[in-house]
Amino acid sequence: MHGGVRERARAALLADVGRIARRHLAEHGAADLSVRAISREMGLAPSALYRYYPSRDALLTQLIIEAYDELGEFVEHAAAAAGPERHRERFVAAALAIREWAVDHPHEYALIYGSPVPGYAAPEDTIGPATRVIGVLVDVMRHADPSTLHGVDHPDLGPDLAEQVHHVIELSGGDLDPHVLAYGAVQWATLFGLVSFELFGTFTSSFDDAGPLYRHAVELAATTLRLTDT
Amino acid sequence: MHGGVRERARAALLADVGRIARRHLAEHGAADLSVRAISREMGLAPSALYRYYPSRDALLTQLIIEAYDELGEFVEHAAAAAGPERHRERFVAAALAIREWAVDHPHEYALIYGSPVPGYAAPEDTIGPATRVIGVLVDVMRHADPSTLHGVDHPDLGPDLAEQVHHVIELSGGDLDPHVLAYGAVQWATLFGLVSFELFGTFTSSFDDAGPLYRHAVELAATTLRLTDT
DNA sequence: CACAATCGAGATCATCGCTCTCGCTTTGAG
DNA sequence: CTCAAAGCGAGAGCGATGATCTCGATTGTG
């Protein structure tokens, strides 16, 4: 059963389909990704592809997972390039990596952070890879100084938010200041909000290149969190 | 030429199409909005609808404009409910209104702030209505106290961002502190980033109800901008 | 070798956006 | 008032989509 001709042929074909699908996604977007186009390009009948993928959605799911993983790996790598004690640098690098990847892969970004495709519910398999990016951010948050977030006029988390934050802290392995986590979650949304505004056209004719504004937001967050190098 | 039977019939039919389209959008999302479904519901042949709309995209464009206008009006109204000198209250009300509308109209929200539909370029007519929401925010920003944003460790805008900000300040009628505008733009992205995370599923199993976190972010921004009532 | 599992092709179905033509009705100018 | 022009709706049709089913052919295994 191992190394059979059919096994290898099947694996090769699956890889081909994935490669072609990824290319189509990158070039024309998720909505233009058609089973028939892939089958044409592979010289197969459309029905033949259904031996390998149960539906177009399954194909999309795979692409979603791959996109999450690609982005996650890219951000992890960027963060790791900074020294182990250079927390601020690591945060900045990770944040800039998010935007860099998104700008380089707009369709993949739209697939994972844009409006969900209709009638498509993200299966369980996608939540794992989706966690990688936020894992990097949470890691950096561990080295934030909560003092800025405990000033007298700093709004406190209400009971509802406190409970949610508490719950998230537990899932994420503990030892994070609640205010830091709340602020981190907001910053997380800021980063992706800025990228989405840039890629989806909301910044058109104001911040067409959102790079400088994005960097500013990152520096702002890093400063507020008192992230330091060394 | 005025008040003719045909004129009124045409207007009534256009209104019907709009109403049905809006309902389909609200119930099933933009991708499921089909000319044929509308024609079926109206007892017309699909081809007949093309006397009224040149294409499905034109229909979508109208829905986009209406969505922007609805959200804009909703936010304007919420902001106006606060007293004229209650700037912080006005900001909070406007921000909460954004999320409230989005949660109540997820498909409309996705249409205007989600990934752009493929091959569809937002025409000029959409930028006007799109400006209403941000107009409210800019108005409030006029009453912000820039002092917090000029501290010694506050990151300065680089030359590129300064120039973009300067340009935006001019288009928006002047008299805004550059740091305030930059911070406001970032906060703008934060609000919509949070809403998108909530509606598009990114917050699933962490902040499923993002209301408390959203409110926290709003209070945070209002405090940083030193917005005050009276 | 024979049998079962796998595979690919082709036909088919329902759906979609959109175009074209044909005939009917309303309109407005002479 | 007439009558041509313009507006309108239906129907057929084109090219495309995702998906299913059946039918041979190929392959791997007992």
Radius of gyration of chain A, whole Å? 21 Å
- Structural class of chain A, by secondary structure, is mainly alpha
Helicity range of the residues of chain A?
55-70%
Q: Name the overall outline of chain A.
A: elongated
The major pleated sheet of chain A works out as:
none
SSE sequence of chain A, one letter per element? HHHHHHHHHH
Quote the distance from N terminus to C terminus of chain A.
55 Å
Give me the number of helical elements of chain A.
10
Largest interface: A-B, 57 and 58 residues
Kindly report the average pLDDT value of chain A. 93
* Number of beta-strand segments of chain A: 0
- Quaternary state reads homodimer
- Unreliable segments of chain A (pLDDT under 50, ≥5 consecutive)? none
Portion in beta strands of chain A: under 5%
SSE layout and pairings?
Two copies of one chain form a homodimer.
Chain A: H1 5-28, H2 35-42, H3 46-49, H4 56-80, H5 87-104, H6 106-113, H7 127-141, H8 159-171, H9 178-200, H10 211-224
Helix pairs in contact in A: 1-2, 4-5, 4-6, 4-7, 5-6, 5-7, 5-9, 5-10, 7-9, 9-10
The structure holds a DNA duplex (30 and 30 nucleotides).
